[in-house]
Q: What sequence folds into this?
């Protein structure tokens, strides 16, 4: 059994003295784990940082074995972000959420391309937090829970949308929410593709997606804590918004 | 039917094989060597290991390993009290000491914030570091953490935590002594380029 493809490195764990078990996200094989001989050593250690784009060759005797990878670095993304706390928090959150949310060995080609585009954007532009918010919406949709923000769940109107129902993920207008405002999640205009998308607004949007990520993915991963990297990103984004 | 060493010797080999750098075969050779030099090596080694095992603990101030309540670095009056170098583990502290480049005191975290392993600020004793900074008149905290995603995430977290209370600096990143550009990864070259300075 073998295949060769490039992919994004999501997580690394030391295995024994010099090997590492890595998790990668590829277009055709989804989230896939394997051993890298020498992965914790001096030569490969700097290469195997989360977010790196790698050329991967996987080999195992049987399909359901863990198998081993040989890796070649294509692009390091973390290196450019070492001095950028917000960018580093974004990269960590993307990798940790993918490692946490995706089932093993199930392909999600569209999400793979969106993730790769986002990871390339993070070191390239300060406007990446909005792309990150949209990526979380896409992640939710891929995991089977799409937000419906097209019209009010109560009145059916498509304008004046200001809240999201924490139960259904559907938008609610100001009029439809009357009397229930404190039970609903605020819907920032940037989630509707409108407005300036300030970091404060994006942080509000991330509270909406975070609610559903916790609710939809948490029960599927019993015993596994929700990645704290996402909360650290949210804290940093809220702080940068003042 | 084959007969190997006695049970207790087999147990010793099995324990030795769990040490870094040793496997079952090399542990067998090491144990054989120890048994051949019982008087000169095995006895003193067992005695020294017993002594250390009975008294080893973490320094109450910095987290270094020591056989007293406070380590030799924390009790050395010649070391600067206003400088604290934050390292990930004791191996890093020893590496810094080998270099002889630092004359202050240390703070050993025992790990880094980790998205994967759910290691949080309390697990790393960061509130203890904040207490030291407030209590000991510290003027500068130097973050000597590994240049990895987890290491730098931890560095930024500590920097935020101590912002406005003390000067926080971190080690430079770039081309290592004896390093050849052709063999460096692109992240290191990028970091070195951004941190270039006039000569």
A:
């Amino acid at each position: 059994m073998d295949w060769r493809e490039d992919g994004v490195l999501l997580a690394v764990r030391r295995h024994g003295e010099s090997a590492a078990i890595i998790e990668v996200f590829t277009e055709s094989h989804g989230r896939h784990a394997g051993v890298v001989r020498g992965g914790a050593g001096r030569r490969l250690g700097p290469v195997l940082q989360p977010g790196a784009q790698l050329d991967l060759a996987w080999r195992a005797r049987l399909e359901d074995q863990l198998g081993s990878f040989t890796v070649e670095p294509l692009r390091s993304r973390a290196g450019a972000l070492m001095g950028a706390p917000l960018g580093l928090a974004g990269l960590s959150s993307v990798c940790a959420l993918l490692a946490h949310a995706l089932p093993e060995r199930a392909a999600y080609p569209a999400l793979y391309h969106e993730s790769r585009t986002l990871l390339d954007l993070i070191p390239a532009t300060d406007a990446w937090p909005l792309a990150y918010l949209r990526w979380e919406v896409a992640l939710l949709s891929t995991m089977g829970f799409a937000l419906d923000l097209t019209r009010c769940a109560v009145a059916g109107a498509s304008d004046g949308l200001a809240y999201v129902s924490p139960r259904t993920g559907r938008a609610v207008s100001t009029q439809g929410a009357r009397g229930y405002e404190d039970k609903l999640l605020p819907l920032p205009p940037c989630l509707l593709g409108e407005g300036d998308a300030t970091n404060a607004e994006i942080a509000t949007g991330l509270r909406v997606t975070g609610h559903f990520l916790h609710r939809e993915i948490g029960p599927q991963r019993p015993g596994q804590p929700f990645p704290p990297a996402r909360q650290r990103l949210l804290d940093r984004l809220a702080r940068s918004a003042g | 039917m084959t007969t190997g060493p006695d049970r207790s010797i087999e147990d010793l080999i099995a324990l030795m094989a769990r040490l870094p750098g040793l496997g079952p075969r090399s542990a067998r050779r090491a144990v054989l060597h120890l048994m051949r030099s019982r008087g000169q090596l095995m006895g003193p080694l067992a005695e020294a290991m017993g002594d250390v095992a009975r008294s080893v603990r973490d320094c109450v101030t910095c987290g270094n390993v020591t056989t007293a309540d406070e380590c030799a670095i924390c009790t050395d009056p010649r070391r600067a009290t206003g400088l604290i170098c934050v390292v990930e583990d004791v191996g890093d502290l020893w590496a810094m000491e080998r270099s002889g480049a630092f004359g202050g005191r240390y703070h050993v975290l025992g790990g880094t914030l980790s998205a994967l392993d759910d290691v949080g600020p309390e697990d790393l004793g960061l509130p203890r570091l904040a207490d030291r900074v407030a209590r000991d008149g510290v003027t500068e905290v130097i973050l000597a953490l590994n240049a990895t995603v987890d290491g730098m995430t931890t560095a930024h977290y500590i920097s935020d935590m101590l912002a406005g209370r003390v000067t926080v600096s971190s080690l430079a990143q770039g081309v290592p002594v004896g390093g050849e550009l052709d063999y460096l990864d692109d992240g290191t070259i990028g970091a070195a380029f951004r941190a270039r300075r006039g000569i």
